[in-house]
Amino acid sequence: MRILLIEDEKRLSHFIKKGLVESGFAVDEAHDGEEGLYLAKEETYDLIILDVMLPKLSGIEVCKKLREMKKDTPILMLTARSELDDKLEGLNSGADDYLTKPFAFEELKARINALIRRSYRQVSNALILADLDVDLVKHIAKRAGKPIKLTPKEFSILELLLRRKHEVVTRTQITEHVWDYNFESMSNVVDVFIGTLRKKIDKGYKISLIHTLHGVGYMATDKKKQK
Ligand code: CA
What we know:
Elements: E1 2-6, H1 10-22, E2 26-30, H2 33-42, E3 47-51, H3 59-68, E4 75-80, H4 84-92, E5 97-101, H5 105-119, E6 126-129, E7 132-135, E8 140-143, E9 146-148, H6 152-163, H7 171-178, H8 189-202, E10 210-213, E11 217-220
Parallel strand pairs: 1-2, 1-3, 3-4, 4-5
Antiparallel strand pairs: 6-7, 7-8, 8-9, 10-11
Helix pairs in contact: 2-3, 6-8
Protein backbone atom coordinates (compact mmCIF):
# COMPACT_ATOMS: atom_id res chain seq x y z
CA MET A 1 0.00 0.00 0.00
CA ARG A 2 1.23 3.46 -0.83
CA ILE A 3 1.24 6.40 1.55
CA LEU A 4 1.82 10.12 1.09
CA LEU A 5 3.48 11.66 4.14
CA ILE A 6 3.16 15.45 4.40
CA GLU A 7 5.26 16.62 7.35
CA ASP A 8 7.71 19.53 7.52
CA GLU A 9 9.71 18.29 10.52
CA LYS A 10 12.28 16.35 8.55
CA ARG A 11 13.55 14.20 11.40
CA LEU A 12 10.06 13.07 12.30
CA SER A 13 9.22 12.55 8.64
CA HIS A 14 12.28 10.34 8.07
CA PHE A 15 11.53 8.38 11.22
CA ILE A 16 7.94 7.71 10.13
CA LYS A 17 8.98 6.87 6.58
CA LYS A 18 11.66 4.44 7.72
CA GLY A 19 9.21 2.60 9.97
CA LEU A 20 6.54 2.41 7.29
CA VAL A 21 8.95 1.20 4.61
CA GLU A 22 10.15 -1.51 7.00
CA SER A 23 6.51 -2.50 7.39
CA GLY A 24 6.15 -2.91 3.63
CA PHE A 25 4.54 0.41 2.67
CA ALA A 26 5.70 2.55 -0.24
CA VAL A 27 6.06 6.13 1.01
CA ASP A 28 6.39 9.49 -0.76
CA GLU A 29 7.35 12.50 1.34
CA ALA A 30 6.34 16.14 0.97
CA HIS A 31 7.69 18.84 3.27
CA ASP A 32 5.17 21.63 2.74
CA GLY A 33 1.47 21.97 2.03
CA GLU A 34 1.77 22.96 -1.61
CA GLU A 35 4.02 20.07 -2.56
CA GLY A 36 1.78 17.73 -0.60
CA LEU A 37 -1.37 18.95 -2.33
CA TYR A 38 0.30 18.59 -5.73
CA LEU A 39 1.37 14.98 -5.09
CA ALA A 40 -2.02 14.09 -3.60
CA LYS A 41 -3.70 15.37 -6.77
CA GLU A 42 -1.33 13.81 -9.29
CA GLU A 43 -0.53 10.44 -7.74
CA THR A 44 -2.53 7.55 -6.32
CA TYR A 45 -2.32 6.86 -2.60
CA ASP A 46 -4.06 4.49 -0.22
CA LEU A 47 -3.65 6.96 2.63
CA ILE A 48 -2.34 10.45 3.37
CA ILE A 49 -0.63 11.35 6.65
CA LEU A 50 -1.05 15.09 6.99
CA ASP A 51 0.53 17.37 9.56
CA VAL A 52 -1.61 20.39 10.53
CA MET A 53 1.14 23.00 10.93
CA LEU A 54 2.84 23.21 7.54
CA PRO A 55 4.61 25.93 5.56
CA LYS A 56 2.91 27.46 2.47
CA LEU A 57 -0.44 25.73 2.98
CA SER A 58 -1.74 24.34 6.27
CA GLY A 59 -2.87 20.75 6.66
CA ILE A 60 -6.43 21.97 7.16
CA GLU A 61 -6.33 23.82 3.83
CA VAL A 62 -4.78 20.85 2.03
CA CYS A 63 -7.51 18.61 3.41
CA LYS A 64 -10.30 21.02 2.46
CA LYS A 65 -8.98 21.43 -1.08
CA LEU A 66 -8.70 17.68 -1.63
CA ARG A 67 -12.23 17.08 -0.43
CA GLU A 68 -13.51 19.94 -2.62
CA MET A 69 -11.91 18.13 -5.58
CA LYS A 70 -13.76 14.98 -4.52
CA LYS A 71 -10.51 13.19 -3.67
CA ASP A 72 -11.60 10.68 -1.06
CA THR A 73 -8.22 9.20 -0.09
CA PRO A 74 -8.28 8.48 3.68
CA ILE A 75 -6.52 11.24 5.63
CA LEU A 76 -4.86 10.79 9.01
CA MET A 77 -4.04 14.16 10.56
CA LEU A 78 -1.15 14.82 12.92
CA THR A 79 -1.79 17.51 15.51
CA ALA A 80 0.27 18.89 18.37
CA ARG A 81 -0.86 18.18 21.92
CA SER A 82 -3.60 20.44 23.31
CA GLU A 83 -4.59 21.83 19.93
CA LEU A 84 -8.19 20.77 20.43
CA ASP A 85 -9.41 23.31 17.90
CA ASP A 86 -7.04 21.80 15.33
CA LYS A 87 -8.50 18.35 15.86
CA LEU A 88 -12.05 19.56 15.48
CA GLU A 89 -11.19 21.72 12.50
CA GLY A 90 -9.28 18.83 10.97
CA LEU A 91 -12.18 16.44 11.30
CA ASN A 92 -14.59 19.10 10.03
CA SER A 93 -12.36 19.74 7.02
CA GLY A 94 -12.69 16.11 5.97
CA ALA A 95 -9.93 14.19 7.77
CA ASP A 96 -10.85 10.62 8.73
CA ASP A 97 -8.86 10.39 11.93
CA TYR A 98 -6.21 12.26 13.87
CA LEU A 99 -3.24 11.42 16.05
CA THR A 100 -1.71 13.72 18.65
CA LYS A 101 2.06 14.25 18.73
CA PRO A 102 4.09 12.72 20.22
CA PHE A 103 2.76 9.27 19.40
CA ALA A 104 4.05 5.73 19.49
CA PHE A 105 4.88 4.36 16.06
CA GLU A 106 2.78 1.25 16.77
CA GLU A 107 -0.26 3.44 17.32
CA LEU A 108 0.32 5.21 14.01
CA LYS A 109 0.53 1.85 12.29
CA ALA A 110 -2.65 0.61 13.95
CA ARG A 111 -4.56 3.74 12.85
CA ILE A 112 -3.21 3.40 9.30
CA ASN A 113 -4.26 -0.25 9.10
CA ALA A 114 -7.72 0.59 10.43
CA LEU A 115 -8.24 3.41 7.90
CA ILE A 116 -7.04 1.36 4.93
CA ARG A 117 -9.18 -1.57 6.05
CA ARG A 118 -12.19 0.70 6.23
CA SER A 119 -11.55 2.16 2.78
CA TYR A 120 -11.40 -1.35 1.30
CA ARG A 121 -14.55 -2.29 3.27
CA GLN A 122 -12.73 -5.05 5.00
CA VAL A 123 -13.74 -6.26 8.44
CA SER A 124 -10.66 -7.94 9.83
CA ASN A 125 -6.87 -7.81 9.65
CA ALA A 126 -6.77 -11.15 7.87
CA LEU A 127 -7.07 -11.60 4.12
CA ILE A 128 -8.18 -15.08 3.19
CA LEU A 129 -8.45 -16.88 -0.14
CA ALA A 130 -9.05 -20.65 -0.11
CA ASP A 131 -6.27 -22.07 2.12
CA LEU A 132 -4.13 -18.91 1.84
CA ASP A 133 -4.22 -16.74 4.94
CA VAL A 134 -2.49 -13.36 5.22
CA ASP A 135 -2.26 -11.58 8.57
CA LEU A 136 -1.75 -7.87 7.90
CA VAL A 137 -0.77 -6.99 11.46
CA LYS A 138 1.72 -9.77 12.09
CA HIS A 139 2.83 -9.63 8.45
CA ILE A 140 2.62 -13.38 8.02
CA ALA A 141 1.38 -15.30 4.99
CA LYS A 142 0.46 -18.96 5.31
CA ARG A 143 -0.77 -21.51 2.83
CA ALA A 144 -2.43 -24.62 4.27
CA GLY A 145 -1.01 -23.56 7.63
CA LYS A 146 2.56 -23.41 6.34
CA PRO A 147 4.34 -20.03 6.66
CA ILE A 148 5.61 -18.53 3.40
CA LYS A 149 8.64 -16.24 3.45
CA LEU A 150 7.92 -13.07 1.46
CA THR A 151 9.90 -9.89 0.89
CA PRO A 152 8.11 -6.61 1.82
CA LYS A 153 7.32 -5.90 -1.85
CA GLU A 154 6.01 -9.40 -2.50
CA PHE A 155 3.87 -9.07 0.60
CA SER A 156 2.47 -5.73 -0.61
CA ILE A 157 1.61 -7.13 -4.03
CA LEU A 158 -0.09 -10.14 -2.48
CA GLU A 159 -1.98 -7.83 -0.11
CA LEU A 160 -3.27 -5.72 -2.99
CA LEU A 161 -4.31 -8.78 -5.03
CA LEU A 162 -6.13 -10.24 -2.04
CA ARG A 163 -7.89 -6.99 -1.17
CA ARG A 164 -9.31 -7.16 -4.67
CA LYS A 165 -9.65 -10.91 -4.94
CA HIS A 166 -11.61 -12.25 -7.92
CA GLU A 167 -11.03 -8.88 -9.66
CA VAL A 168 -8.45 -7.99 -12.28
CA VAL A 169 -5.64 -5.81 -10.97
CA THR A 170 -3.66 -4.11 -13.71
CA ARG A 171 0.08 -3.73 -13.76
CA THR A 172 -0.33 0.03 -13.46
CA GLN A 173 -2.47 -0.38 -10.35
CA ILE A 174 0.21 -2.58 -8.82
CA THR A 175 2.96 -0.04 -9.50
CA GLU A 176 0.76 2.78 -8.19
CA HIS A 177 -0.02 1.05 -4.92
CA VAL A 178 3.21 -0.77 -4.20
CA TRP A 179 6.04 1.45 -5.40
CA ASP A 180 6.90 5.05 -4.56
CA TYR A 181 7.34 8.09 -6.78
CA ASN A 182 10.86 7.16 -7.87
CA PHE A 183 9.81 3.92 -9.49
CA GLU A 184 10.56 3.50 -13.19
CA SER A 185 7.29 2.14 -14.52
CA MET A 186 8.57 1.11 -17.94
CA SER A 187 10.48 -1.84 -16.55
CA ASN A 188 9.04 -5.33 -16.30
CA VAL A 189 9.75 -5.52 -12.59
CA VAL A 190 6.11 -6.24 -11.74
CA ASP A 191 6.13 -9.40 -13.87
CA VAL A 192 9.32 -10.51 -12.18
CA PHE A 193 7.80 -10.02 -8.73
CA ILE A 194 4.61 -11.81 -9.72
CA GLY A 195 6.71 -14.68 -11.04
CA THR A 196 8.51 -15.23 -7.73
CA LEU A 197 5.35 -14.60 -5.75
CA ARG A 198 3.49 -17.24 -7.73
CA LYS A 199 6.28 -19.75 -7.15
CA LYS A 200 6.13 -19.16 -3.42
CA ILE A 201 2.33 -19.25 -3.19
CA ASP A 202 1.28 -21.83 -5.74
CA LYS A 203 4.17 -24.22 -6.32
CA GLY A 204 3.33 -27.68 -5.02
CA TYR A 205 -0.38 -26.94 -4.60
CA LYS A 206 -3.15 -28.36 -6.73
CA ILE A 207 -5.08 -25.12 -6.98
CA SER A 208 -3.32 -22.03 -8.33
CA LEU A 209 -4.37 -18.80 -6.66
CA ILE A 210 -2.40 -16.20 -8.63
CA HIS A 211 -3.27 -15.85 -12.29
CA THR A 212 -2.00 -13.79 -15.19
CA LEU A 213 -4.55 -12.46 -17.64
CA HIS A 214 -2.37 -11.71 -20.62
CA GLY A 215 -2.51 -8.12 -21.74
CA VAL A 216 -4.87 -7.24 -18.88
CA GLY A 217 -3.30 -7.85 -15.50
CA TYR A 218 -3.36 -10.25 -12.60
CA MET A 219 -5.96 -11.86 -10.39
CA ALA A 220 -6.02 -13.70 -7.11
CA THR A 221 -8.81 -16.23 -7.23
CA ASP A 222 -9.60 -19.88 -6.67
CA LYS A 223 -12.50 -19.76 -9.11
CA LYS A 224 -10.51 -19.65 -12.32
CA LYS A 225 -10.17 -22.77 -14.45
CA GLN A 226 -7.03 -24.55 -13.33
CA LYS A 227 -4.42 -25.62 -15.82
CA1 CA B 1 4.61 20.85 11.32
